[in-house]
């Protein structure tokens, strides 16, 4: 669904994989609190589905393959499209869905970053400012749950900019060029580009003002009202005003700014668009918006809004800001035994594992004693002892061992 990516897959240590999975669990839990249910899509998708949909991933960015029948397939470059297609075919009965999927794209000359993990939500059937605001509030709450102290959700409106440039005599190529200049806020080239067009002066001035409409929502809305050139643009600003009022009711207004020069390369967006930035991290870690006309390309008119988080970028941002807490060692307990104590030791290991303890067993006659567990239980025929680097405790039964472990892990 989004037009940005980063990949650290394949370079994660086992500890980092645990941290990343914990991050994903946090995101999933927040999605569920807003009434979303998990869904999924196939890794291999029909190439024709993506190549025929207007405004989706560029064909050159898709990773293609051919199956045994000669059909061209693509590794899933986007999740919104297959979910929307399935919903349009009435295969999905739920209108609030979330997913965690790997996405595959080739961007530019970068041959390394082809795969990344995305977690996102899709809300179908609701076309109201209230659902726009709720989606943005959810994005804020996700980043709050991930313990980021400094971040902003930038909010724009795809329709506001489109309504304005429709007043200009632009070819498709010129329109794309202007959008690139606006997105990069390249004021030095925007002016000369517009001056070459045969357009009314007040329209040109309005376009020049777009990149400057960034910052405090109240101030941006006031300035935006001064450059309105048609009724549609006024409707968009009224929508943004109402959304901002709801965001204040949610209590998240300090986490948002407005950017009416915000442009997303996924051209199926039709209304509010937004993206989330973590202070100190250069790329957006989430992107989303309203796409009310996408389902029409699959034969069903259904409004929709959603966003996706790039889990790999969030993970990197957390590590950069030292937000991550190291997980426990792979095992909490190593049980050591010899041939004489094997039966009792392995029975105790089964009991402890069934109780949720992470256990490694080690035959001292066959293994080097080199496991870095937090606790070690030494089984011998005469006695059994639990110890760590500071203390040791004797026990007689597996139940006593479990009680000791729970007590020491709680106090430690």
Structure description:
- With 412 residues, the chain is an alpha+beta fold.
- The protein has two domains: 14-320, 2-Layer Sandwich (BirA Bifunctional Protein, domain 2); 333-411, Anticodon-binding domain (Rossmann fold), CATH 3.40.50.800.
- The chain is built from 13 helices and 17 strands.
- The protein has helices at 14-33, 47-52, 80-88, 129-145, 158-165, 172-183, 187-195, 201-209, 217-225, 231-250, 311-320, 342-354, 398-411; strands at residues 37-38, 44-46, 64-66, 72-75, 96-104, 115-124, 151-157, 214-215, 256-259, 272-278, 286-290, 304-310, 333-337, 359-363, 375-379, 384-387, 392-394.
- The strands form three sheets. It has a nine-stranded mixed β-sheet. Strands 14-13-15-16-17 form a five-stranded mixed β-sheet, with helices on one face. Strands 2-4-3 form a three-stranded antiparallel β-sheet.
- A hairpin with a 4-residue loop joins β15 and β16.
- α1 (14-33) packs antiparallel against α4.
- The longest helix is centred in the N-terminal third of the chain and has 20 residues, at 14-33.
- The chain is elongated and about 95 Å long.
- It starts with 13 loop residues before the first helix and ends with a helix.
- The model is unreliable at 1-9 (pLDDT under 50).
CATH level-1 class of the largest domain = Alpha Beta
Shape: elongated
N-to-C terminal Cα separation, in Å? 45 Å
Strand order of the largest sheet: 1-5-6-12-11-10-7-9-8
Number of strands: 17
Just name the CATH architecture of the largest domain. Answer: 2-Layer Sandwich
- Low-pLDDT residue spans: 1-9
The fraction of residues assigned to DSSP E strands is: 15-25%
N-to-C SSE string, H for helix and E for strand:
HEEHEEHEEHEHHHHEHHEEEEHEHEEEEH
The SS-based structural class is alpha+beta
CATH homologous superfamily caption of the largest domain: Bira Bifunctional Protein, Domain 2
- Main sheet specs: 9 strands, mixed
* Number of structural units classed as domains: 2
Note the total helix count: 13
User: Helicity range of the residues?
Assistant: 25-40%
CATH topological fold name of the largest domain: BirA Bifunctional Protein, domain 2
Radius of gyration: 27 Å
Mean pLDDT: 88
GO molecular function, one term: histidine-tRNA ligase activity
Family: Belongs to the class-II aminoacyl-tRNA synthetase family. HisZ subfamily.
Subcellular location: Cytoplasm
Keywords: Amino-acid biosynthesis, Cytoplasm, Glycosyltransferase, Histidine biosynthesis, Transferase
């Amino acid at each position: 669904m989004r037009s940005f990516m980063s990949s650290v897959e394949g370079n994660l240590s086992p500890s980092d994989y645990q941290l990343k999975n914990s991050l994903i669990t946090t995101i999933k839990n927040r999605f569920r609190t807003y009434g979303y249910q998990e869904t999924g899509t196939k890794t291999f998708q029909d190439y024709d589905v993506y190549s025929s949909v207007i405004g989706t991933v560029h064909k050159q960015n898709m990773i293609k393959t051919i199956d045994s029948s000669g059909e061209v397939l693509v590794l899933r470059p986007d999740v919104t499209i297959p979910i929307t297609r399935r919903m349009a075919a009435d295969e999905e009965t739920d209108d609030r869905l979330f997913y965690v999927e790997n996405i595959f794209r080739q961007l530019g000359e970068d041959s390394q970053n082809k795969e990344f993990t995305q977690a996102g939500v899709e809300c179908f059937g609701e076309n109201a400012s209230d659902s726009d605001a709720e989606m943005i509030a959810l994005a804020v709450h996700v980043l709050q749950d991930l313990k980021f102290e400094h971040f902003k959700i930038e909010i724009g409106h795809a329709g506001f900019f489109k309504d304005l440039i429709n007043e200009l005599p632009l070819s498709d190529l010129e329109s794309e060029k202007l959008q690139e200049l606006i997105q990069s806020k390249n004021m030095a080239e925007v002016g000369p580009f517009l001056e070459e067009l045969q357009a009314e002066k007040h329209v040109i001035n309005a376009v020049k003002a777009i990149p400057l409409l960034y910052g405090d929502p109240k101030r941006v809305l006031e300035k935006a009202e001064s450059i309105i050139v048609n009724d549609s643009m006024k409707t968009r600003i009224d929508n943004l005003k109402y959304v901002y009022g709801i965001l204040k009711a949610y209590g998240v207004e300090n986490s948002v700014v407005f950017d009416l020069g915000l442009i997303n390369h996924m051209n199926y967006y039709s209304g509010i668009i937004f993206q989330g930035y973590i202070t100190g991290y250069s790329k957006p870690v989430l992107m989303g918006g309203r796409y009310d006309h996408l389902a029409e390309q699959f034969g069903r008119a259904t409004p929709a809004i959603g966003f996706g988080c790039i889990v790999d970028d969030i993970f990197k941002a957390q590590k950069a800001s030292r937000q991550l807490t190291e997980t426990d060692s792979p095992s909490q307990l190593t049980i050591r035994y010899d041939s004489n104590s094997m039966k009792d030791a392995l029975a105790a290991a089964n009991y402890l594992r069934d109780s949720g303890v992470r256990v490694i067993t080690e035959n001292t006659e066959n293994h080097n004693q080199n496991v870095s567990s937090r606790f070690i239980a030494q089984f011998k025929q005469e006695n059994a002892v639990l110890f760590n680097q500071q203390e040791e405790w004797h026990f007689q039964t597996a139940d006593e061992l479990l009680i000791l472990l729970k007590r020491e892990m709680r106090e430690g």
